[in-house]
């Protein structure tokens, strides 16, 4: 039999020699070779005596794991080192994966020992006070090996469940937005004053500890060597130390020597009204365990059909599909299909066919559309009407567009922040110097130009203006102006000129578009040209809505409304009525029953205002 070597997978703790365990030290001593990331090998170099140092140039973790296994298989005693604990975003799992891939046998193959170390969640917490104490979790914000959607879903879940959270890999030179998005999610569940600790290089040279809040955390340096610990709703700060109470309700008395509850009384159900036993005693055991009798619902998931616009730019269509994936991850109890109004497939009719073919008895149709106009008021309902005739036994429930709302303004504020970044070079991040604003132009000399798609439906156009106003009220800019890239006026060019007329020294163009596409590209091109023609003006352009987590939120809400049968279209300012529908159908030669509007929309169809376009377009 071939002689087998040994693999010691060693977590050596945060970095100081004093925080390495005794077993880690002895295992290092027993090894003939050491494999690890350069920086880590440097940290433990004082402990190495005879060991060969392997592959310090190797940047790939997989390569290191393979090399370690290869050497162990040829009889060597190899130490694979990770900082912290090797089982926490470290080498342990990877080494096992390589072994399993090679058909490793636990009894006869190379011997493996995983030696535990102090992970960053523990070392950093010890420097911050006692922020963990209660239920906590670790989340790595690195999306190199984990899909960002999964990370978002975990941050959401941890935030909602009030876990103390330790964020590993919070930011690197290239991955800068993840921690910002994570904070945005947390802010929806936790108070802005929630304590946050940022520890850089715990127990190493240049150790740095900051205690701040969810509100202010981004004003501090966060880098590759930092761990960010976010407190739960009970965490407090005392003289710069974060402390999370051991229990939410005090069963113990801290100021008195004698406890009010005697030891044998402490475990009584009455002393723990929050416990499972107490819930069972009250008879709401089902509620306590989250078990309700919805077994029939669980057997047949409800089907939601998301309707996007569709684009000539395939990337834009993919973005709708990705949104659907995010929603599916968020709502695993649903079956979610996608379709497009035009320019991409499947069409709405095909989308409905897919749902019915998949066994849906009811299809909940939710438009992924910003503002209500012709598409959502007319085109989609028309296809639904036809589907009703085709599938008389099925039920069709129609939702409503996103429309102007506070979260849309939140998204715009985030897009402004990204478009007008604080300069944070890698160097300044590392030595902790304060960041400088990139621009000297003050807010009151800056105009924001919100750009919508534009429609010949004044209802939709006016919603963009409403958003501009809502945005302006939450900023200190000279003005927030509105313009449109297609159909309606003022055009993007006219909007830019308006900003000049107002005396703006800086213009931030904010496209209010869901996804990328022809219009987004046209906008970028026009803004680039304008900037070139006006070198004295600072011009920035914000990103489209895209993957912003609040978009997922807004749609999740529209889905919930639709499932509950609560979505109602805004008919008050709607210019389309039965008559218009007739013309439209007629125009397109559709053999649809005249004036049959879908669902709630028809209820208001009596308050007919002037039919026909009254959009800005017609004014010119
Ligand atoms: N196996 C390691 C984690 C590796 S992932 C452990 O258990 O600690 C790398 C991330 O760990 C870093 O981005 C940082 O978030 C965190 N980290 C590791 N060592 C740290 C230290 N000494 N101080 C602060 N954070 C640290």
TrEMBL record:
It comes from the Bacteria. GO terms for molecular function: precorrin-3B C17-methyltransferase activity. Keywords: Cobalamin biosynthesis, Lyase, Metal-binding, Methyltransferase, S-adenosyl-L-methionine, Transferase. GO terms for biological process: methylation. Residues 6-217 form the Tetrapyrrole methylase domain. It is an enzyme of class 2 (transferase). The keyword S-adenosyl-L-methionine applies. Gene3D superfamilies: 3.40.50.1400, Cobalt-precorrin-4 Transmethylase, Domain 1, Methyltransferase, Cobalt-precorrin-4 Transmethylase, Domain 2. SUPFAM superfamilies: Chelatase, Tetrapyrrole methylase. Its EC number is 2.1.1.131. Pathway: Cofactor biosynthesis; adenosylcobalamin biosynthesis. Coiled coil: none annotated. This is Precorrin-3B C(17)-methyltransferase.
